[in-house]
């Protein structure tokens, strides 16, 4: 009995041929992005076969991660290089091109060793020893300025400027380096970057960007409510504030008189009044709700002198709870 393992027309490569095709594929990817490295790195024009990309299917970029995401690959080793760049982008946010070029050059050296009939496992052991040696040398050369705040900030600025040198913001890297370092230092040692919110607005220049001293929620305050609040006590909520109609699914109410309908509406309004009074009784002066706030509760909040913000997006509510230390 024979089992069909491969698809129709599939080819199989073994030993030297498989190794060689993998090495060549990886080196080709390294050579592709190598020319985008450094201050004199060149842009690549990417055109997709389907015509998608920019408005006319064209993308002009020198970002290694973008180039590697855009090229179709069917070589296994080349795909590994693309995955290396994705991990580097997710973990560090920079050096996507460098890791690919480094990996490709290491493979180029490995190819020469393979030609000398050195076993692949021996070559890998050598690379592992070299990695340990390089790490030890880096740790020995490393200097910490954690105790000197001014020097520590200068080190961080240098890192930020280096990172931004290969990005679109290279012309304004000093301005953005200051912003990035200030934002990270405000986290006071926390590594939770979700606390830093990036708000994008169309129009204006890139250099108009600024770091706000507070928390920005891009929403409007309710009608006739305080526009400015000092010593705010904030309640972050996710609760329905639109109960001005019966919301029991499948419920049917038959009335024989319009006055009975008015009674139901009055009961609903009183129910909402009681809810607003309970909220106000907590001693808050700012109420941020993820759901809608209808006119009647909005008026009740205005009467109580409470600033109410409706329909705050999920991300905004989560982050607001995080920075205020409150619970939704």
What does this entry show, briefly?
The chain has ten helices and five strands; from the N terminus they run αββααααααβαβαβα. The protein is mainly alpha-helical and 328 residues long.
Task: Tell me the distance between the termini.
Answer: 63 Å
Low-confidence residue ranges = none
> Percent of residues in helical segments?
40-55%
How many helices?
10
Report the major sheet: 3 strands, parallel
Question: Radius of gyration in whole Å, from Cα?
Answer: 30 Å
The secondary-structure element order is HEEHHHHHHEHEHEH
**Strand order, biggest sheet?**
3-4-5
| DSSP strand count | 5
Mean pLDDT: 84
Give me the secondary-structure category: mainly alpha
Give the overall shape. Answer: elongated
- Tell me the fraction of residues in β-strands, as a range: 5-15%
How are the elements arranged and paired?
Blueprint: H1 15-34, E1 44-47, E2 58-61, H2 64-70, H3 76-91, H4 96-115, H5 120-141, H6 149-164, H7 173-185, E3 234-237, H8 258-280, E4 286-289, H9 295-303, E5 307-309, H10 314-324
Parallel strand pairs: 3-4, 4-5
Antiparallel strand pairs: 1-2
Helix pairs in contact: 1-3, 1-4, 2-3, 3-4, 6-7, 8-9
Protein name: T-complex protein 1 subunit beta
Description:
The protein has helices at 15-34, 64-70, 76-91, 96-115, 120-141, 149-164, 173-185, 258-280, 295-303, 314-324; strands at 44-47, 58-61, 234-237, 286-289, 307-309. It is mostly helical and 328 residues long. The strands form two sheets. Strands 3-4-5 form a three-stranded parallel beta sheet, with helices on both faces. A two-stranded antiparallel sheet has the order 1-2. Helix 9 (295-303) links the parallel strand 4 (286-289) and strand 5. It is elongated and about 95 Å long.
């Amino acid at each position: 009995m024979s089992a069909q393992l491969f698809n129709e027309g599939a080819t199989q490569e073994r030993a030297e041929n498989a190794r060689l095709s993998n090495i060549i594929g990886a080196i080709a990817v390294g050579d592709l992005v190598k020319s985008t490295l450094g201050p004199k790195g060149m842009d690549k024009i990417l055109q997709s076969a389907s015509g998608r990309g920019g408005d006319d299917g064209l993308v002009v970029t020198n970002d290694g991660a973008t180039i590697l995401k855009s090229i179709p690959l069917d070589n296994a080793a080349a795909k590994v290089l693309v995955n290396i760049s994705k991990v580097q982008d997710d973990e560090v946010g920079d050096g996507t091109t460098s890791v690919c070029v480094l990996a490709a050059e290491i493979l180029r050296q490995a190819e020469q060793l393979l030609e000398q009939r050195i076993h692949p496992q021996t070559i890998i052991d050598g690379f592992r020893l070299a990695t340990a040696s390089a790490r030890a040398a880096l740790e020995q050369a490393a200097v910490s300025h954690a105790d000197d705040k001014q020097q520590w900030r200068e080190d961080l600025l240098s890192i930020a400027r280096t990172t931004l040198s290969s990005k679109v913001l290279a012309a304004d890297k000093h301005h953005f380096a200051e912003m990035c370092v200030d934002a990270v230092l405000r986290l006071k040692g926390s590594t939770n970057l979700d606390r830093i919110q990036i708000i994008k607005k169309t129009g204006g220049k890139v250099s108009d960007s600024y770091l706000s001293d507070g928390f920005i929620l891009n929403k409007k305050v309710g009608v006739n409510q305080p526009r400015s609040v000092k010593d705010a006590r904030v309640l972050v909520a996710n609760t329905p504030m639109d109960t001005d109609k019966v919301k029991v699914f499948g419920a049917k109410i038959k009335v024989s008189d319009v006055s009975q309908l008015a009674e139901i509406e009055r009961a609903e309004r009183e129910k909402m009044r009681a809810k607003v009074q309970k909220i106000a009784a907590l001693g808050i002066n700012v109420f941020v709700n993820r759901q809608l706030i209808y006119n009647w509760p909005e008026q009740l909040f205005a009467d109580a002198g409470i600033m109410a913000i409706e329909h705050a997006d999920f991300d905004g509510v989560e982050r607001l709870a995080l920075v205020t230390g409150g619970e939704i």
